[in-house]
Amino acid sequence: MRCEEYFNVNHTNTVSKIHIWRDPISSLNYANLVAYNLQTTIKQWSSSISSTMMGIIFIVMLFLIGNSNAFFSATQTRDFETLNYRGKDQMHCNLSSGTWFHDPTYPLYNYDQCPYITNEYNCRANGRPDSDYEKWRWQPNGCILPRFDAGGLLERLRGKRLMFVGDSVSLDQFQSMACLLHTIAPDAFIPSRSMLTTFRSAEYNASVEFFWAPFLVQLETTEQGKRILHVDGIEKNGIRWKGVDVLVFESSKWWPDHLGPQRWDIIMEGRKEYTSMDPMVAYRKALSTWAKWISENMDPQKSRVFFRSPSLSHYNRFN
């Protein structure tokens, strides 16, 4: 049994959290499982971000993968739950309830030896003298998270593509995973190409990729330097997503204007042009465009799609 958790915004602009239990998800209902994570005011948006759990969380819109191509067979999934879940309730674990433990065996990779860490993300290269901040491991109260196994992940990704799509939050996730995998596949590095960065292992015929799309929908710059956000345009980005086995989407940090200057000059919806629009209204329109594209272009029998919830703001109220 799976639970999809999402936020629904009704016509009264009231945000309600809804839990739906489906087994399995059919192609007729998954389009409604969209994590809007919207608030009706900028102040509410800020409160929502500050209350979001720490770590990697997905507000899930899942596509079931066919049994022959599943990343985890039914047996593997049951074994994981049995071996790693504790307490009376063996089938549930709240990943957001736990403690940070100092682990002297961390980090699991060397920042200086990973080609995926760009200069602005390399604390050591930028002069930070200490390293204790790298040695913390999250431990949920109700279950044991197994130590990361790079070889095991690549084996499960054999013949498949995993892609992170979004802004710098998704880039953080990609860089971390790519560096972990780089420890056992150091020859897999592929330089960035425009908006796409790829880790590819020829041995496993597997790739982990990052596609830069901070709004998910299209942002174009004219010859005059005007930035046009097309809240109903996604095809130019979507063509890169077709055929990917696992897609992890995220879009939140570039929308609210209280986090910095507005990232667009004009909003286009069809032939209508707007020089001013509430960021939350634009966000809703963009996510509706994204959800419609997913519904029409992704095969739920072949791909899994995740939408990641907003993360805490750590640096200057941003990342």
TrEMBL record:
Pfam families: PC-Esterase, PMR5N. Keywords: Membrane, Signal-anchor, Transmembrane, Transmembrane helix. Residues 92-143 form the Trichome birefringence-like N-terminal domain. It comes from the Eukaryota. Residues 145-316 form the Trichome birefringence-like C-terminal domain. The chain crosses the membrane at residues 53-72. It is a single-pass membrane protein. InterPro entries: TBL (IPR029962), TBL_C (IPR026057), TBL_N (IPR025846). The keyword Hydrolase does not apply. It is found in: Membrane. This is Trichome birefringence-like N-terminal domain-containing protein. It comes from Taxus chinensis.
